[in-house]
């Protein structure tokens, strides 16, 4: 409808990739609801509504989407981004650490997908839902078995959501970044030479930045025909094989 202001939800919108997407949506004149445990003080825009929300809590998410419903009758896009990680060997990982990551990255994503899907279905306007997956959706990394499992599950959640929600003109897709300069990789600086090695093995020759991902995510948040896909955005890193003769 001409003149209608589009609306979007971003989980984990206070920093990193989520914040980058919030900025892009505002640049394209969306009204944005940012669901995050922390409120970003960086942005001062009347079209941005910050809702404090722990996505691992079903009650928090139900309340957040209720607040959104009191403000708008439609939802055009949802970026499911909130996520956590941690490093622990499999044999030393305790249940609390496993639950901490799975409850946010997978169960929390399920709540977001369900509630955004319900909102779009009930408004009869269709929409786009994009989840932030990872290269770990496809290939496991050492010392983060909980993160690997959560992101592999999220990839299947994307595909399952696309199958079921297509009947309501709702597209569900994922973005799978490679190593990206965000708070999530802050601990890797303590590993001597790690970032340099990854950059060297990446065909485009560097570590990814948030700005590298935004065009692809925004496209998926507004596309009308792509659904059930997980787009790998990693500078070509996933092309490298362990037996590659050139380093």
Notes on the protein architecture:
- The structure is a single chain.
- Helix 1 (16-27) crosses helix 6 (210-222), helix 2 runs parallel beside helix 3 (95-123) and helix 3 (95-123) packs parallel to helix 4.
- This protein has a 7-stranded parallel sheet, sandwiched between helices.
- The chain has one domain: NAD(P)-binding Rossmann-like Domain (Rossmann fold, 3-Layer(aba) Sandwich).
- It has 247 residues and is α/β, with parallel strands linked by helices.
- The termini are far apart.
- It has 6 helices and 7 strands.
- The radius of gyration is 18 Å and the shape is globular.
Summarize the structure.
The protein is of the alpha/beta class and 247 residues long. It has helices at 16-27, 58-69, 95-123, 145-165, 194-201, 210-222, and strands at 7-11, 31-36, 48-52, 77-80, 127-132, 170-177, 230-233.
**Average pLDDT, to the nearest integer?**
94
Biggest sheet character: 7 strands, parallel
The secondary-structure class comes to alpha/beta
CA radius of gyration: 18 Å
Q: CATH topology, which one?
A: Rossmann fold
* Anisotropy-based shape: globular
Strand % is: 15-25%
Number of strands: 7
**What portion of residues is helical?**
25-40%
What topology, given as strand order, has the largest sheet?
A: 3-2-1-4-5-6-7
The rounded distance between the terminal residues' Cα atoms is: 53 Å
Structurally, the number of domains stands at: 1
Number of helices: 6
Order of helices and strands: EHEEHEHEHEHHE
Provide the CATH top-level class.
Alpha Beta
The fourth-level CATH homologous superfamily is NAD(P)-binding Rossmann-like Domain
Q: What is the CATH architecture annotation? A: 3-Layer(aba) Sandwich
- Contiguous runs where pLDDT drops below 50 for at least 5 residues: none
């Amino acid at each position: 409808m001409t003149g209608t202001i589009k609306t979007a939800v971003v989980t984990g919108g206070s920093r990193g990739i989520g914040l980058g997407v919030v900025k892009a949506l505002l640049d394209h004149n969306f009204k944005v609801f940012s669901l995050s445990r922390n409120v970003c003080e960086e942005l001062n825009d009347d079209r941005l509504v910050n809702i404090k929300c722990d996505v691992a809590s079903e009650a928090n998410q139900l309340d957040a989407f209720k607040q959104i419903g009191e403000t708008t009758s439609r939802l055009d896009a949802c970026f499911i981004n909130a996520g956590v990680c941690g490093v622990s060997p499999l044999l030393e990982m305790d249940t609390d650490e496993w639950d901490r990551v799975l409850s946010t990255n997978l169960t929390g994503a399920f709540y977001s997908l369900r509630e955004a899907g319900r909102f779009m279905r009930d408004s009869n306007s269709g929409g786009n839902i994009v989840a932030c997956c990872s290269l770990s959706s496809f290939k496991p990394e050492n010392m983060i078995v909980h993160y690997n499992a959560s992101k592999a599950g999220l990839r299947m959640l994307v595909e399952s959501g696309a199958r079921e929600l297509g009947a309501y003109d709702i597209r569900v897709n994922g973005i799978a970044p490679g190593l990206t300069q965000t708070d999530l990789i802050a601990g890797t600086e303590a590993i001597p030479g790690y970032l340099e090695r990854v950059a060297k093995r990446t065909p485009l020759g560097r570590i990814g930045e948030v700005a590298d991902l935004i065009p692809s995510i925004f496209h998926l948040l507004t596309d009308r025909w792509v659904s059930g896909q997980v787009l790998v955005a990693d500078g070509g890193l996933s092309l490298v094989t362990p037996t590659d003769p050139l380093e």
